[in-house]
User: Fold these one by one.
Assistant:
Number 1:
Amino acid sequence: MEKRELLYEGKAKKVYATGDPELLIVQYKDDATAFNGKKKGSIAGKGIINNRMSNRLMEKLEQTGIPTHYVRELSERETLVKKVRIVPLEVIVRNVSAGSFAKRYGVEEGIVFSAPTIEFSYKNDALDDPLICLPHIYALGLATREEMETIKEYAYGVNRFLKDFWASCGVTLVDFKLEFGRLPEGSIILADEISPDTSRLWDTATGEKLDKDRFRRDLGGVEEAYAEIMSRLEAADRG
Ligand code: 5GP
């Protein structure tokens, strides 16, 4: 697939046009940012791991009936994806208290919820991605009621699958962020990435963090954690 002009450069990825107007090429970078770009750095090899991990997980999700933008892995950092119009929401599912949830409600991290929770943030860097409720999503025309029903169903479906999958790797899926997009005919599919950049993954036995919180919180061993979580996934795939 021919890589054409650079359409967009984000914090962790570049997006290129292709010869097919319905397809794009995503290229994963090693750049890492946190706190809405206020902390910047690089995690050696992260782009390779996130590309491969996101692709393997999206392949599995497709098999469970959740449609995704994933088409084909092109190289160790590049993937062919379906072009979508992104719904400007971060969809966050949580199984265990951590991060902004623990901070907002003044509770410790690590409280296991009796059922998963869902929340939405309005994707807007200038506003620091504020939390948004469904009535405000409708008031702003960001998505329709029908689209939000689909998004919730898919997000909980992703959680059911990933929670079990990571458990089989000895890893607790604490929380994660998803993004969805609309295909030209209007249907909703899962887009963006699923990786240690966008998920909290804790070693179930030791509680060790195997995700981007090691970078956000200056815990050290960042590259090692990304390599460890990828090797757990690959070991599970080998059976
Ligand atoms: P929190 O709201 O606790 O900061 O994040 C909840 C989950 O969503 C975490 O797994 C975190 O990695 C992910 N997440 C939330 N917002 C973002 C974001 O802007 N970028 C990335 N990469 N992940 C996010």
Number 2:
Amino acid sequence: MNTKYIFVTGGVVSSLGKGIISASIGKLLQARGYKVTIQKFDPYINIDPGTLNPYEHGECYVTEDGMETDLDLGHYERFTGIRTTRHNSITTGRIYKTVIDRERHGDYLGKTIQVVPHITDEIKRRMLREDEQGEDLDFVITEVGGTIGDIESAPFMEAIRQLRWQLGRNAVCVHLTYVPYLKAADELKTKPTQHSVKELQGMGIQPDILVLRTERHLDDAMRLKVASFCNVDLECVVQSEDVPSIYEVPVRMQRQGLDAAILRKIGIPVGETPAMLPWNRFLEKQRRATREVHIALVGKYDLQDAYKSIRESLNLAGIYNDVKARLHFVNSEQLTADNVAEQLKDMAGVVICPGFGRRGIEGKIVAAEYTRTRDIPTFGICLGMQMMVIEFARNVLGYKDANSAEMDPDTPHNVIDMMEEQKSITEMGGTMRLGAYECELVPGSKAAEAYTADNSQLSTLYSQLTVRERHRHRYEFNNRYLDAFEHHGMMCAGCHPEAHLVEIVEIPALKWYIGTQFHPEYSSTVLHPHPLFMDFIKSCIDGTAQA
Ligand code: GLN
């Protein structure tokens, strides 16, 4: 079958969950045996979200090929298990950069370069994934960030209008709107939806399917009203009620026939509804996992989305271990030797979060010391791992001034620094190690055991003792100190096979004290939780059982 295109846009307000709906559509089509990809177009000027403050955009999600992207790509991967690439995350900045570079190169032969058609053509090219020949996809789902009517999203809407015309039935437009509930009137209001659709129609786009985001159930009469005001079939008005877990969304959408409506619009026989057994089994486990395990996230961004993939990885690993991971944010900027006992009281485990810059690092070091000396399961991720190393250097090896060259370029004990070896493997020009690199696990280490734990679900993903994990950092463990560390009990449990950069450290004498230079959270998915998170949670549970 030739490739079909699904465009997902949103109206009324932002944060309606377009990412989750796009991911759910992907999942449902996959369950019917189709090959799918999902891509996100963001209307801001930044070339990529890498430099965006997490307070504005939440976490930066990193693809295997080293692209710093929007956190929605994390949803796409967790829901569908597909591996996204740099071609799945596009911004206005990148579109303009391509066009301007081409113009400088003289490719336009002296023509005046304009938003229409040059920018819109470049958007269309990317929506059609013209650079990705040979992908053999059945469906390309394109989510456009922002809301209808934003000045900056106008070129994207124009591109969709043109593509719908060009592709005919091979394209479907899904529009997501908000249906507010007015408490005083005890009424749900569909007017904003009507206005949003009108605005879309004004841009020449007639949506095929409406997904109404609502806190209350919409009855058929309401759906019928929306259908008739918006020129949409009744069966194409789907509601997305608030649910306790985002992972319930695909089955809710399936029950309402969202995937069937898409197929019908395109003219593909709908066939039987797939059972989605593994997914439903996961949901069943999620519903039953009520026993709570308390885990602290020590970080500097007090915002749910800033550590999205870590949160989801812990949640998923919790569910597969039959517990509900209750996550408590602990602000590392306010964490001191005096209050750490109080702050981390009753925690079964502690995650020391990634980050950049000095702010809040001393608090992370305090946390690392507290959990190390009390044998509380601890998982340090990227900067978190580096802080475990610095704490060990200061308090066990006795290098009181130990630091990372990132925080103190003149420290005589640069246990974390920029390494010569890393230059041979990082891309030309960039100093940041980004994307997936191999890590050879040290046989017999706790980390190796975690990866190879007898779990048939995981064995296909992680072959033997070499794993591939994603990175996003500039500094590394300084190998000059490795002997001293190992002599005192902090071991290298995994390293890059050629450059010998330390990828994992652990203290084998403790229950679970592991730090990874990479970000395992980016590769946890609903059906394949990451083995390190699985093992970490297991050890947190064991700890509480003994207490
Ligand atoms: N700031 C550290 C580095 O660049 C760690 C980065 C991170 O935690 N992602 O090495």
